[in-house]
Amino acid sequence: MGVRVRVWDLPTRVFHWLLVISVVGLFITGNVGGWWMDWHMRIGIFVLSLLIFRVLWGLLGDTWSRFSRFVYAPASLLTYLRGQSPLLHRVGHTPLGALSVFALLLALLLQVASGLMTDDAIFFSGPLVPVASDPMIAWASRYHSELGKFFVMGLVILHVLALVVYKLCFKQALVAAMIHGHKQLPGPVPEASDGWHDLLKAAALYAVSCGLTYCIVTWGAP
Ligand code: HEM
Ligand code: HEM
C-alpha cells in the first residue's frame, strides 16, 4: 500500500520534458544541418535558458528539486548500493540517480557552451565566436561535433536504460512520477509544494534565466 506523495513539482517536470523535446530536436537539426542550423542554434539557446533555470531552481526551488536534497556523501552511495539507504534517500533522486542527473546537466552545459563558440568555417557560427580566441573556437568546434555530442548521447542512453531496469527489476514507476509528480512510498515524507507562490517563484526565476541567457548570447554582438 504505502503513501502517495507529491515528489516532483510542476516546474521540474515542465523543465524535464521541454529539455527532452529540445535535446531530441538538437540532435535532429544538428545532423540534418543546412538551413535547419538556424533552428539548431535557437533551440540550443533555449536549452541554455532551461539549464540556467534548473541551476537557480536547484538552489532556490522546492523540496526534492533542491540540489541540497541530492548532493550525497560517497558513503551514502555505498549504503544505497547495498540496499540499506534510509527512505529519505529514496524519495527524489537517489545517490546513484543523482550522479546521472549531475553528469547529464554538466554534459549539456558543456555542449551548449561549446556550441556558442562553434564555427563550421563556412556558414554557421555560434554567437560567442566574435569574442572567443582562435584556440578556444578550434577547441569548442571539435569538442561540440566530435566529443560532446557522444557524451550527451551516451548519458541519455544510460539514463533511459536505467529507467527500464528500475521498472522491470525493481517495479518502480519513475517515468510516471516525472509525468504526474507523485510516488507511492512506504512511509510519510515531506511533500513538494506546488502552490501559486511556487509557480510564481519559478516564473520569476525563468525570467531571470532568460535575462542571463540574453546577456550571454549578445555578449559577442557588435
Ligand atoms: C545540448 C545542446 C546541443 C546539442 C545536443 C547539440 C548537438 C549538435 C550536433 C549533434 C551537431 C552535429 C555535429 C556533427 O556531426 O557535425 C551540432 C552541430 C552544431 N551545433 Fe550544436 N548542439 C547543442 C547546442 C548548440 C548551441 C547552443 C549552438 C550555438 C548557439 C550550437 C551550434 C552548432 C553549430 C554551429 C554546429 C555546426 C558545427 C559544424 O558543422 O562544424 N549547438 N550540434
Ligand atoms: C534527451 C533526453 C533526456 C534528457 C536530456 C534527460 C534529462 C534528465 C534530467 C536532467 C533529469 C533530472 C531532472 C531534475 O531533477 O531536474 C532527468 C530525470 C528523469 N528523467 Fe530524463 N532525460 C531524457 C529523457 C528521458 C526520457 C525519454 C524519460 C522517460 C521515458 C525520462 C525520464 C526521467 C525520469 C523518470 C527522471 C527522474 C529520475 C529519478 O527519479 O531520479 N527522461 N532526466
CATH H-level superfamily title: Transmembrane di-heme cytochromes, Chain C
- Return Rg in Å: 19 Å
> Which ligands accompany this protein?
protoporphyrin IX containing FE
* Regions with little confidence, pLDDT below 50 for 5+ residues: none
How much of the sequence is in beta strands?
Answer: under 5%
CATH topology: Fumarate Reductase Cytochrome B subunit
Q: Spatial order of the strands in the main sheet?
A: 1-2
Number of strands: 2
SSE topology string: EHHHHHHEH
- CATH architecture type: Up-down Bundle
Please tally the helical runs, counting DSSP H or I stretches of 4 or more residues: 7
Principal-axis shape: globular
Question: What is the topology?
Answer:
Layout: E1 3-6, H1 10-32, H2 36-60, H3 74-81, H4 95-116, H5 134-170, H6 174-180, E2 182-185, H7 196-217
Antiparallel strand pairs: 1-2
Brief rundown of the structure:
The protein has 222 residues and is mainly alpha-helical.
